[in-house]
Amino acid sequence: MSARPASVGSFLRQAPPDRLPEVVAEHLRTWFPVAGTEVLLSDLTLSSLWPVLEPETPPGSALEQRCFGSQQPVTDAALRRVLLPLATWGDRIGVLRVDLTEAPGHELVTELTGVADELALALRAADKDTDRYRQIVRRQRLTMAAELQWDLLPGRSLTGERFRLAGQLEPAYAMYGDHYDWAVTDDRLTLTVLNGQGDGIEAALLTTVAVNAMRNARRSGANIVEQAELASDAIYSRHGGTSHVATLLLEIDLSGGTVEAVDAGSPRALIAHEGDIRPVTLEQQLPLGMFGDSRYETQKFQLESGDRLLVVSDGVHAAAPGGKAAYGDSALLTALRRTRLQPPTEAVGTVIRALRDYHAGDDQEDDAVIVCLDWLRGTA
């Protein structure tokens, strides 16, 4: 056999966006001792993995889920199988399953990991140019509101040298205006959790205006006060004060842990550290869009190394199904304590599952957002 190409990346860049799994499968068959390949993508609820190459076959097993959750390669020597996480900048996409004709050695697994990394990057880039992968990950039809909000999300997780970040939005297929956004530039991480007033398409459109107004300001170099004020003006000019967006807007200094905040509504923040959980007390200002020419001020609080910052929408902390006490009164803290040893990507799912259990079969009356940030350390 001739020398193996250094990377599959050049082949993926030349391929049509909807044929990336086939390109990787052919590359592996040609250059590696491979008997079979499957690409599995996570569904919108992050609860199951679905095959792309053979979509009629069953979803991924517990072994694939273990790979997806741990974000580490998993080998099954008996089956001569290697499972590799597909992720870009910490945003989990799915799993690459490779069946080999020989036992998986360390060097081979390392090479296959490089192929998985190239595929994950290509899948993320191709997502806007083909519907194939989105058709796999949605297991039922989305409402129009949900379609708008999924397109608006930045991703489901993000990692950097000093932080790990994850968010989850529920219910996945029908939403009512809750949302989150984030962006990292240099040592600054901007994080927003929002709740557009109302439900259905009107709430989603309201949130879309707010998010894009804040992005427009942020990308022009504006600080979080200016971002909030531009979004408030945009909403007021459209609705004249009849609709508003509750927002918590944070800018985190990743080198020192200082957090500047604009609290304009119902999302709430908590800090967990070594089992202790405390609320972040901020002075609440008016929601975006209630009045013309609204002005906002920042408040500050400090993260310590190892702190976990959690932000939840009112669909989490204020949920009171069947006349129960609000979820945020005590059940939320119980759920958060269970996440102490979990990474943010798993912690958000734990809280959302506990919220579902709290509803005990009743439909959620509001959508729910939870965002989890681990600040790992300051500068050395």
From TrEMBL:
Q: Which InterPro entries match?
A: Bact_Sigma-Reg (IPR052016), PPM-type-like_dom_sf (IPR036457), PPM-type_phosphatase-like_dom (IPR001932)
Pfam families from the xrefs?
Answer: SpoIIE
SUPFAM superfamilies, per the entry: PP2C-like
Q: Tell me the ranges covered by the PPM-type phosphatase domain, including all copies.
A: 158-375
Q: Which UniProt keywords apply?
A: Hydrolase
Record PANTHER family: STAGE II SPORULATION PROTEIN E, STAGE II SPORULATION PROTEIN E-RELATED
Task: Return the protein name.
Answer: Serine/threonine-protein phosphatase
The organism named in the record is Paractinoplanes bogorensis
